Amino acid sequence: MGRQKRVAGIVEQIDGGVAELCPDDGRPGRWTLLVDGYPQSAVDLADPRRLDFEYMRRLASIVDGAAPPGAPLSVLHLGGGALTMARYVAATRPGSSQRVVELDAALIALVRRVLPLPRNADIRVRAMDARAAVESMSGARFDLVIADVYRGARVPAHLASLEFLTAAAGLLRPDGIYAANLADGAGLAFARGQVATLRELYADVCLLAEPAVLRGRRFGNVILAASAVPLPVAGFARAGAADPFPARLVHGGDLDRLVAGARIVTDATATESPAPPRELF
């Protein structure tokens, strides 16, 4: 049998840098998106429920806990990437209404051309800055707002303030959930500030991260969830513990101790999340 020819990746200039869509030779339909060399998303077109990145699986556990299994949700995604989480919601909760805000119009065009969205899924994608989009909307219309916005490999400062988070909170239904994917390193100063800020707006907040990240031993993803009503933290904890890269849930008194002394972040004090070490990728 002859050797199979390797499928070349697709590299294109986008508004925010250089995007590369890399196919997986061993799994047809599986693609990874990189922007300026940083992995952003992984998509399995054959099974959108399959999530290769652990931070996506943590976000998925929040989607899973937001309503009874299979019940449709109204979701606002801030940050599009390869539209991985929107595809997951469409696959696990048919009939969901989803809106995606992604700043990079050229990235949207590339993803939609190479990785088409599932038919009959109510997913609308808009090219716009996430904060401008949030501030242009009104009404408590969403069950879930998911913030996963990066400029390069850093969360922009204008999406880390009380002013922005207040505007996002106003779009949630009374029992809705705000979820965010952050990246942080030793000391977790950025994540701790975000928790302190969310606690100004929501009655219940929790955090999910790998133990090594929580102990400051390595740079990694931190997932936050917040709601005006009690979060289904037991389900989040089970999903995190069962993951191939287990995550620890931090909630209640443990979260009090983790964020002790952290200050609320405002537009005047907000900074980008820290840059990851280059060798991480």
UniProtKB/TrEMBL annotation:
NCBIfam families: MFS_SpdSyn
Protein name as catalogued: Fused MFS/spermidine synthase
Upper lineage: Bacteria, Bacillati, Actinomycetota, Actinomycetes, Micromonosporales
Annotated signal sequence range: none
Cell membrane listed as a keyword: no
Xref: InterPro entries: SAM-dependent_MTases_sf
Keywords in alphabetical order: Polyamine biosynthesis
One annotated GO biological process: polyamine biosynthetic process
